[in-house]
Amino acid sequence: MFAHNIEVFLTASNIADDDVRGRTVVAMDVLRASTTIIHALAAGAREVIPVPDMGEAGRIAAALDPASYVLGGEKDGKPIEGYGLGNSPLDYSGDAVSGKTVILSTTNGTPAILAAAEADDVLVGGFVNINAVADAVRALQAPLTIVCAGWKNRVALEDTMCAGMLIDLLLEGHSPANLADTAYMALWQYRHDQDAIDVPIGRCNHARRLEQLGHGADVAESIRIDAVPVVPHLSERRLVPWSAADPTLSSGESSP
Question: Residue 128: which domain range?
Answer without folding.
Answer: 6-238
